[in-house]
Amino acid sequence: MTTAVISNNKMETFEKLESAVRSYSRGWPTVFEKSKGYKLWDVDGKEYIDFFAGAGTLNYGHNDTNMQEKIIEYIQQDGILHSLDMGTTPRKEFLETFQEVILTPRNLDYKVMFPGPTGTNSVESALKIARKVTGRDTVISFTNAFHGMTIGSLSVTGNSFKRHGAGVPLHHTVSMPFDDYVEDQNSIAYIERFLEDSGSGVALPAAIILETVQGEGGINAARMDWLKKIERICRRWDILLIVDDIQAGCGRTGTFFSFEPAGIKPDIVCLSKSIGGVGLPMALTLIKPEYDKWGPGEHNGTFRGNNLAFIAAKEALRFWETDQFSSEIQDKAKLYKVKIDKIIAKYPELNGEARGRGLMQGIAVHVDDLASKICTKAFERGLILETSGPNDEVVKFLPPLIIDEEGIMKGMAILDDSIAQVLSK
Amino acid sequence: MTTAVISNNKMETFEKLESAVRSYSRGWPTVFEKSKGYKLWDVDGKEYIDFFAGAGTLNYGHNDTNMQEKIIEYIQQDGILHSLDMGTTPRKEFLETFQEVILTPRNLDYKVMFPGPTGTNSVESALKIARKVTGRDTVISFTNAFHGMTIGSLSVTGNSFKRHGAGVPLHHTVSMPFDDYVEDQNSIAYIERFLEDSGSGVALPAAIILETVQGEGGINAARMDWLKKIERICRRWDILLIVDDIQAGCGRTGTFFSFEPAGIKPDIVCLSKSIGGVGLPMALTLIKPEYDKWGPGEHNGTFRGNNLAFIAAKEALRFWETDQFSSEIQDKAKLYKVKIDKIIAKYPELNGEARGRGLMQGIAVHVDDLASKICTKAFERGLILETSGPNDEVVKFLPPLIIDEEGIMKGMAILDDSIAQVLSK
Amino acid sequence: MTTAVISNNKMETFEKLESAVRSYSRGWPTVFEKSKGYKLWDVDGKEYIDFFAGAGTLNYGHNDTNMQEKIIEYIQQDGILHSLDMGTTPRKEFLETFQEVILTPRNLDYKVMFPGPTGTNSVESALKIARKVTGRDTVISFTNAFHGMTIGSLSVTGNSFKRHGAGVPLHHTVSMPFDDYVEDQNSIAYIERFLEDSGSGVALPAAIILETVQGEGGINAARMDWLKKIERICRRWDILLIVDDIQAGCGRTGTFFSFEPAGIKPDIVCLSKSIGGVGLPMALTLIKPEYDKWGPGEHNGTFRGNNLAFIAAKEALRFWETDQFSSEIQDKAKLYKVKIDKIIAKYPELNGEARGRGLMQGIAVHVDDLASKICTKAFERGLILETSGPNDEVVKFLPPLIIDEEGIMKGMAILDDSIAQVLSK
Amino acid sequence: MTTAVISNNKMETFEKLESAVRSYSRGWPTVFEKSKGYKLWDVDGKEYIDFFAGAGTLNYGHNDTNMQEKIIEYIQQDGILHSLDMGTTPRKEFLETFQEVILTPRNLDYKVMFPGPTGTNSVESALKIARKVTGRDTVISFTNAFHGMTIGSLSVTGNSFKRHGAGVPLHHTVSMPFDDYVEDQNSIAYIERFLEDSGSGVALPAAIILETVQGEGGINAARMDWLKKIERICRRWDILLIVDDIQAGCGRTGTFFSFEPAGIKPDIVCLSKSIGGVGLPMALTLIKPEYDKWGPGEHNGTFRGNNLAFIAAKEALRFWETDQFSSEIQDKAKLYKVKIDKIIAKYPELNGEARGRGLMQGIAVHVDDLASKICTKAFERGLILETSGPNDEVVKFLPPLIIDEEGIMKGMAILDDSIAQVLSK
C-alpha cells in the first residue's frame, strides 16, 4: 500500500498536467532516469531489464557509448543541429555510409528520401509516391497491419480503436487477409481472384503495403513463401510493393531488412525507429530510382534534418559492416524460442502459442486479460515488456539486439515467475 | 564557372543518393558545417547570416550555449534518450516549467499532449480530438493555410501543388477566405451566412483551424479584430477553435503565443518547431481540459519522448521568465519594418508590399519570379532567406529572435544589394 | 371534429402500411381521385385549385386531352411500353420533334441522353460525364441548391436535413454563394478569387451546376447578369456549365429553357418533370456533342424507355411550335406578381418578400412557421400550394402553365382569405 | 449488305441525335413497334421471341390485356396520373392488395416505401435508412453485384467499368466474395473472420446487401445454405440484411421473393422492374417496421406517384393469388434447364457451364466474345437475348414468366441454330 501511494505521488505531474492520451506511463508508473545497454533505472534506483527497446527503437541498446561520444563531440563543435533538407556533413556521411554498408552489398538500388523524422511520415510519403507514379488511388493493406496514426497511415492500419480515432471515414484502401489469417484458407488465391476479376469491386491498386512481421498486430510473421507470392502478384499486375520495415527492420529479425530471407525486392521501403541508432527521431523512405518521381518539396517537413540522429545513425551502420551482428541476433533468437516453448509447455493454462521471427517474438495467450496481467506483474519485478495484438493478447519480446545471454536468462526468469504469480491467484 | 563546378562536386552525394524530393539543398547548394546564434558556416568556411531560422525552428538561435551544455551533461549521465510517453525526469521538468512559465501567467488552462515530434502530428491530433468531442467531421480551414503534409493536415492546407501530391481527394474540410482575402469583401459575413443557413451546403464544423500569421501562405497576418470575430463565431455555434501556432508561436510575433494580443483563448493550440529550443524534433498539442477526451493511446507515436528536446525546451522557456525577451522582439520587429519600407520605397520596380507581424515579416513582390531571384542572389552574398506564398512571390524574413542590430543591418544591406543586382540585369 | 375523424379514416391505409417517409399525404390528408387542367378532386368530390402542378411536373396541366388520346391509342395498338434504350417509334419521333421544335430554332446543339426517368438520374449522369471529360473530380454547386436525393445529386444539394440523410459524408463538391446570397457582397468576385489563387484550397472544378431559379431552395431567381458572369467564369477556366432545368425548365419561367433570356449556352442541361408532358416519368440529359464521350452503357437504367412518356412528351412539344404559349406564360406571371405585391402590402405582419420569375414565384414570410400555416389553411379551402426554402419559409406558386385568369384570381382569393384567417388567430 | 444499309437508315435518328451512351439499340439495330406476351415486332413486321423481358421488367409479358384495359379506363376517367406521395385511389388499392396478397400470406411484416420509380432509387433509400438506424457507414456488398448507377448504388456495385464511370472514388463499402467466388475457399469463414477481429481493418457494417441471383454479374445463384449463413451473420453482429430483389424478385426465380426458399427474412427488400406489371416505372423499398425511422420527406422524388404503374401493379398481383403461377414458373424453369444442358453437351466447343435458378438462367461460355456473337446471330434470327457477366461471357435467359412451351422450344431452336452458325465460321 505504501508503495502505491509513493508511486502515485511520483506520477502526479503527469496525471495533472498531461493529456489523458498518455499510455505507457500508466502501465509502467514510475519516472525513469538512466539507461545503458539493455537496462534502465528509475528515480528510486530500481533496475529494469528491457524486453521492449523503445518499441523497437533501441535495437543497439540504450546510450551506446560510441554514439554518445560522437554526438557530444558534434555538439561541442557547434555542428548544425537542425537543417531541414539542406546539405550538412552528417547528412552527407550518413548517405554515403548507408549506400556502402547497406545498399551496395545487398545489391539494392534505392534513392533515399528523408520524409520527416517519424515512421508515419515515411508511410505517408510511400503511399503518396506510389499513387503518383501509378495514377491509381487504392492501396491494399492487411488485417492487423499497423502503419501509423496520421490519416494516410491510419487508412492502411487495421486496428478498429485506432481507426475510429480518426473521426472521419478512412478510404482508398482495401484490407486483405495476412498470410494464414483465416484458418485453412489460401489468402493468395483470395487476393488473386479479386485482382483478376474486373467485377470484383476491388480496383487495381497503386500498391500493396505490408510488414513482414506485424509488430503491433500480434507478432504475426509472414512465411517467406507468402512474401514471395505477394511480390509475384505485384509484378503480375504492376502494383508497387511497399515494405514497412519500421519495426521489423534495422536487424530486428536477424538481417538488416526483414525481407532479405524472402529474396524479394520491394519497390519502396519505410524505415524509422532504430535507424536513428540511439533513439533519436529519424526516418527514411527508400524508393527504386524509376519511381522517384517527386517534384522538389512535394512532400516536406521541418525535422527532416535531425543531424544528431544522422551521426548516431552512421555509427549504428558499423554494426552491419560484417555478418557477425546478424549471426549473433539469430543465436539469441533461438535462445528466446527455446525459453518461450518451455514456458508454453510449463503453463498449459496460458493456452499459449509461440509467434514471431528473430528478436521479435511473442506468446499469444488465449485467455482474456492474462497477457496484460503478466506484463504488469513483470514490471513490478523489474522486467519491461508490453502486449500486442488486437485484444492485447500477446506478450511481446523486443529486447535490444545487443542483449547478452545473462540478460535474456534473467528476464525470462522474471517472466516465468510473474506468470506463476498471476496464475496462482 | 570554376565555382559552379566545385559547388556541383560538393552536392554530388545528395544528387546521386537522395530522392528528387529534396528542395532546400537545391536553392542553397552548399554543405553546412557549423552554426552559432544567427550565423552559419559551410565546409568552405563561408559565413551566412540567417534570416530563415530553420523555417521558424531556431527562434533561440543556433547552438544556444546553455542548451548545449545541458544536453551534453544529460547524455554524459546516461540519461534516457528515447522514452515514448513513459515518465522521465526531463518530461516531468518540462511539463512543470511550461505550466509555471507559460500557462499560469497567461491564465491559460490546457492539458499538454505530446503527439509525436512533428508539427503535422500535432495538427492531426488536434483535428482528431475536435472531431471526437463534437461528433462532427467537417473542419473549416482558410485560404493559403499550411498545416502539414500528412493526409489529415494536408486536407486543411490550401496549396494546390501540395494537395495534389496527396494522390487522393482530400475531404471533410471547407476552405473559407482568410481575413481580407477577397478585396473589399467581408469574410466574416460570408462565414456567418454559411453557418446560419441550414441550406448553405456547409455542415456545422467540428472546428475552425487557423494560423494567426500564415507563414507558408505568404506572411498574411490576420487582424486582431478578425481573430476576435472568428472566436465569437466559434462560441456562437459551439465550434472548437484550433490555433496552429507551429510557426507563429514560441515568440515569433513578439508574444509566446501569437494569439495573445487578440485576447482570444483557443480550445486547442498546436506547437512545434521552436518549442524544442535548439532545433530538436518536438511538438505539443494543448487542449482545454474539458475537451481532453482521449482514450489512452488513441493517438500515439514512437518519438513522443525525445528527452534531449525536453531538456532544451525547458531551457528555452527561461527566455520567457520576464517580459524582456518579448519587448526586444518587438523592437527588432520595428527595425525590420523600417528597413522593409525603405526597400519598397527605394525599388518601385518590385511593386512591393510589406506584410507580417513581429519577426515574421515579408515583402510581396508582384513581379513573376523576382522574389526567387532575389533570394538566390542573397544566398550567394551570404544571406539565407526564402520565399513564401502560393507563387513564391514573397521574400520572407524569419530571423532567429536573438539576432542583434548588427545582424539585422548587415543582412538588410546584403538584401538591398542583391535586389539592386537582380534589377540591374 | 367530425371532419378530422373522417379524414383520419381516409388516410388509414397510408398510415398503417406506408413508411414514415411519406410527406405530401401528411400536409394534404385526403385521397385524390380525378384531375383535369388546373383542378383536382378528391374521393369526396371536393374540388381543389392547383398552384403546385406536381412540383413542376404538370406544366401542361392534368390530363391534357390530346395527350390522353395519343396514349390510349398507343396502348390499344399494343405499342411497346417498356424498351430500355432500344429503338422504338415513339423514341424516334420524340427525338426528331425535340430537335425540330426546341433545339434547332434556339440554335442549340446537344446530343440527347435518356438517363433513367428521374431528375436525380439526369443530374448524376451530368456530373459523371463532366468528371469524365475534364478528368477532375470537384464540382461547384450553390447554397440552397436542390438537385436530387441519390448520393451524387445530394452531394451538390445544400439542404442540411437532406444531406444528413445520406448517412455518409458527401464529397467532391464545394458550395459557393448563389448570386446575392450574402448581403452587400459580390459572389462573382468571391468565386473568381478562389479559382485564380492556387493556394485557395479549392481545386479547379470539373463543372459548375446551378438552377437559374432555385425551386426547393426558396424560389431564388438568379439575375441574368450573374448567370452571364458564371458562364464567363466557366469559359475562362475551362469548366463545364451544367444547368439543372428540371423544375425551372419546360416553360416554367416563360421560355422553354430557363436560361434563354441570359443568352448563355450551358454545356450540359438536365431536364425532367414536365418533359413527360402529362406527369409520366421521363428525363433527359442534353450534352454538347464535344463532351458526349460516353462509352456504350457507361450510364444506364431500366426505365430509360418509358414510351408512354415519349408520346406525351412529343405532344407537349406542340405547345412550343409558336411563341404564343411563351407570351401567355409571361402575361400570367405579371398577373401573379401584381397579386403577390398586393398581398404583401395588405399584410405587413407577414414581413413578406416577393421572389421568383415567370410562373415560379413565391412570398418569403419572415415569421416562423407562418408559411406552413397558410398553406394548411389554403388546402382546407381548396387551394393546393406548398412551402419551399431551408426553413419552409416561402409560400410557393407553381401553377400549371395552362391555368387561366379565373383560376389565378380564384386561387389568390383563397390565399388572401387563408392569410387573413391565420393572422387573425 | 442491302439489309445492313436499310438497317443503318432505320437507326439514323438515334445515331445522329442520341448520345453515345446508347447500348441496346446498337446490339439490336431495329425500331420496335408492337409487342404482346412474349413477342415483339419491329417496323418491318419482323417477329421476335423475347428471352429478355426488358431486363426482367416484363415478367408478366408485354401488354397484358387486363392491365391495358385498367390503364385505359383510368385515363379515360381523368384519374390522377402523377401524385408524388399524395394519397390517391390507385396507391391505396395497391398498398392494400400488396399487403393482402404478398406480405400477409408469407408472414412478412414490412412498411412500404415508394422511393422514386427506379431500382437505383430503391437501393439508395435502403442504404440510407440502414446507415441511419445503425449509425454506421460501411456496407458490405459482394463481388459481381449490380445495384444501380447513381453514386450510392454504384458504390455497392462490382463492375469496374461502371464504377470507373463514377468519376470519383466510391467509398463506405467493402466487397466480399459471393458464395463460391474463390474456388475451394469458404466465403463465410472469410466474412466471419473479418467481422470478429477488431484488427481486421473492416468496420462493423450497417448492412449487407445482396442479390440472391446476380443478374448482371453473370447469373450467379447463391446456394440457399449460403443465404441462411449470411442471415445468421447479420443476426449475430446486428447488421441489417438488404436483399436487392429488383431483378430476381416478382416471381423471376419461381416464388414472389427470390429469398423465400432460403427461409430468411431480410430487414429491407428492394423491388422494382416487374413490380409495375407492364413495364411502367415503379419501385418499392420494404422496411421492417422497427427500422422505418425516416423523417417525413427525408428521401423523396418527383415520380413516386406513378399511378398508371400502381394500377398495373395491382393487377399483376393477381397472378399471386394462388400457387399456380409459381408452380408453372418452376415447370418452365426445368424445361429451360433440360434444353440448356443439351446445348452444353451438344457444343463442347462452348466450354459451357449452366447457371442460375428459376427463369433466370444462363450459359457461361468460356471462350472470348463467343457469347456476344451468339446473341447477335440469334437476334438476326428473331430471338432477343443478351449477355451478362464481367466479360459478357454469359448468355442470359430471362423470358417473360408467362411464356409457353411453344415459345421456349422455338426460342431454343433459334439459339441452337445460332450457335451452330457461329461455331461453323
From TrEMBL, chains A, B, C, D:
GO molecular function, one term: diaminobutyrate-2-oxoglutarate transaminase activity
Family under the similarity heading: Belongs to the class-III pyridoxal-phosphate-dependent aminotransferase family.
Domain of life: Bacteria
Pathway: Amine and polyamine biosynthesis; ectoine biosynthesis; L-ectoine from L-aspartate 4-semialdehyde: step 1/3
Gene3D superfamilies: Aspartate Aminotransferase, domain 1, Type I PLP-dependent aspartate aminotransferase-like (Major domain)
Name the UniProt record assigns to this protein: Diaminobutyrate--2-oxoglutarate transaminase
EC category: transferase
Organism: Oceanobacillus caeni
Protein EC: 2.6.1.76
Entries under PANTHER family matching the protein: DIAMINOBUTYRATE--2-OXOGLUTARATE AMINOTRANSFERASE (PTHR43552), DIAMINOBUTYRATE--2-OXOGLUTARATE TRANSAMINASE (PTHR43552:SF2)
SUPFAM superfamilies named among the record's database cross-references: PLP-dependent transferases (SSF53383)
Cited NCBIfam families: dat, ectoine_ectB, PRK09264.1
Cofactors that this protein relies on: pyridoxal 5'-phosphate
Regions crossing the membrane: none
Assigned keywords, A-Z: Aminotransferase, Pyridoxal phosphate, Transferase
